[in-house]
Amino acid sequence: MFTDENDELATYNTYLQDTKFWQQLHTDAIEEPAKEAAAPQKKYWGTVLPAKDFDRTADAKALRSLVMERDVDEQKLIDILAHRSQRQRMEIAMQYEIDFDEDLIGDLVTMLGADNDFGRLVWALMTPPRLYDARCLRGAMEGTGTDESVLIEILCSRNNKQIKKIIEAYSFATNFDLKKDLEQETDGNLRSLLIAMWEADREDKNVDYTVTLGEASTLIDEELGPSLEKILATRSYAHLRQTFLDYRRLSGHHIMEMISRQTGGFMNPTKDAIKEGYLAIVKCVLSLPGYFAERLYMAMMGFGTDENTLTRVIVSRCEVDMKKVADIYERRHGKSLGAAIADETSGGYCNLLLALIGQE
């Protein structure tokens, strides 16, 4: 009994720390536009940069040599793939086909295998982002059961343009319709939320403070009513940040606390998909890097490691905001992202992940 009470207290303390941390990220997000506008030049927050003296012909030749060798030299492969931008990797693949009349991605998969983490990470790096997202979505719905967390992560974190490209790639690569698959593989409020995200109808407008105040009042009255989904799925990030701020001023608590309370409470160990979906959108609005830092932490906490999530998040963010992701990870958990990855993975897979986050 005493142990159960200690566990509950530890869970409650973690919840309070998380809430306080996200409130700080909320404040940072509101202040960030002014700071960026005042900066002398726009910063690049990715950890993978285009190679300065890029020679796609030389890279294609080097990769061909690796493919033809019996023993895979993982470090040579890492030295090339982790230090070329996604666009440059695509150019290498095209040059490889021109010079050797072979498919580079197919050759790499054959060489490395598709049933191991290193091989899957290399495949992810060589696949265009929209196609990679599409295949991850299809993979989450194939076979028995549905990995709702993958659906939520991708559809709730991508912008309108990205989602529209994913829809096209999904149809092209799988011969299936994404909307129909979502309707068949999910149900209830989660289905409704994911279809709303599929519609890619988020506004890009300036903040109207009268509207945000009114919508904050509506959310206080309705809580998990129909307005929540519409507001989360269609309002701009700037609008939602102000709405959440107004909500907190009017209600005395953060909207994340309301969502947790109305979906079973933070002490409820049962996984609630709609809770995950609502909170994913809120967290992306407050801080996209913060959301992905949390995804990485969840992939490595406890027993076992979710390598698929590690791969998916790091590949998708390494040319976007991985510096911010790593910084938030370390601030929240007191341990560098690189150290966490080194503890949870090994071999070429570990080395390639560390190279992609700039912590070789």
Automatic annotation (TrEMBL):
UniProtKB keywords: Annexin, Calcium, Calcium/phospholipid-binding, Repeat
Extent of the signal sequence: none
GO CC terms of this entry: cytoplasm; nucleus; plasma membrane; vesicle membrane
One annotated GO biological process: endosome transport via multivesicular body sorting pathway
Superkingdom as given in the UniProt entry: Eukaryota
Any one GO molecular function term: calcium-dependent phospholipid binding
Family classification: Belongs to the annexin family.
UniProt domain comment: A pair of annexin repeats may form one binding site for calcium and phospholipid.
Protein name in the entry: Annexin
Species this protein is from: Branchiostoma lanceolatum
Organism placement in taxonomy: Eukaryota, Metazoa, Chordata, Cephalochordata, Leptocardii
